Amino acid sequence: MIFYDCSTAPSPRRARMLIAEKGIDVEKHDVSLAKEEQLSAEFLAINSGATVPVLITETGVTLTENLGIAAYLEARFPEPALMGNTPDDKGAILMWTAIAEGQCGLAVAEALRNSNPHMKDRAIPGPENFEQIPQLAERGLRRIDLFFDKLDQRLQGRDFIATQDFSLADITAFVLVDFARVVQKRVSDTHPDLKRWYEAVKSRPSAQL
Ligand SMILES: N[C@@H](CCC(=O)N[C@@H](CS)C(=O)NCC(=O)O)C(=O)O
């Protein structure tokens, strides 16, 4: 399997953590977003959507979305299960993964991509250019605060976000919460349960990569 990664970006980190948690061997290629390698003809031939991560499966299928990559890896390498074993757990894990993507990942992306001068005209990833809308950056910052509140509340008396076990939902939320540092949002003592969970996930070997 070939894995197109980028060490500085959150989306490939989600897949990287999942691969590490499952102990899977992949051939890794780093794509530098700083050097805009995702827009090169060579990479566009692999993913015309110009984003990482990308996983080329054992049978040669190209997967360009975290959810697709996770579903494939969970089916191909079931242990340890990271997407649930029971119908309830499977539902809860995908639900919390979607909540983290929509309410944290998109909020951080809005805040960063609509304010950073290096991302002028790159407000949305992909082959097309989009101009920045400063109001979206402000809205993104407010939404990150709301998500931190929500997750702190959810984690009261719990070790993991979706179920009794560590799962894809924890990987997704951890990576996206951690990435909020790029817009100066950091987990602090004002959110004690979020902080306890964040420190625990941060200490896992898969989070060091
Ligand atoms: N929905 C995709 C998102 C992939 C994505 O947006 N990746 C970003 C890095 S975090 C990217 O490749 N950006 C390229 C760019 O900024 O031009 C997933 O979750 O896998």
Automatic annotation (TrEMBL):
Pfam families: GST_C, GST_N_2
Domain GST C-terminal: 86-209
Keywords: Transferase
InterPro entries membership: Glutathione-S-Trfase_C-like, Glutathione-S-Trfase_C_sf, Glutathione_S-Trfase, Glutathione_S-Trfase_N, GST_C, Gtt2-like_N, Thioredoxin-like_sf
Superkingdom per UniProt: Bacteria
PANTHER family: GLUTATHIONE S-TRANSFERASE GSTA, GLUTATHIONE S-TRANSFERASE-RELATED
The name this protein goes by in its record: Glutathione S-transferase
Organism: Shimia gijangensis
